[in-house]
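Following up on my earlier thread - several people asked me to post the actual chain instead of describing it. Fair enough. Here it is, all 144 residues.
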Amino acid sequence: MGAIVYLLSGIIFSVGLGLAGMLQPSKVVGFLNPLDENGWDPSLAFVMIGAIGVHLVLYRLTLKREKPVCAEKFGIPTRSDINKRLIVGSALFGAGWGIAGYCPGPGLASLTTGADGVFAFVGAMFLGMGAFQLAVNAWNKSQG
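Reply from S.P.:
Thanks for posting it. Predicted structure:
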């Protein structure tokens, strides 16, 4: 049952990204770069505001449940500290999103479009994730 719910959720999310224009790197860059020569495109702000509104309502309703539909317990983060790793990671994420016009979710969903550069982006994303995991494993091994 869980796998079907996850698949349907992913499909609905991907369709929503497409309808919102987030699978178009030019639209994303046009929003993220207010100095763009083609002019700033504020339309994605409405998408984000809508997502925040839905989250505010449904998050509170969801937490009133005894447990999630497809899990034994809620996996809510407990850390609230801001550290160097969080800041550097956020900056890298934002820079990559601004340069490429893709972030991981829309990048994966954009594979269905066959758009120019999307396969390179997703390939580089997986290579980066693999390199990071290798570095973490090497670090942990050297510390242990």
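The chain has a mean pLDDT of 90. That should answer part of your original question.
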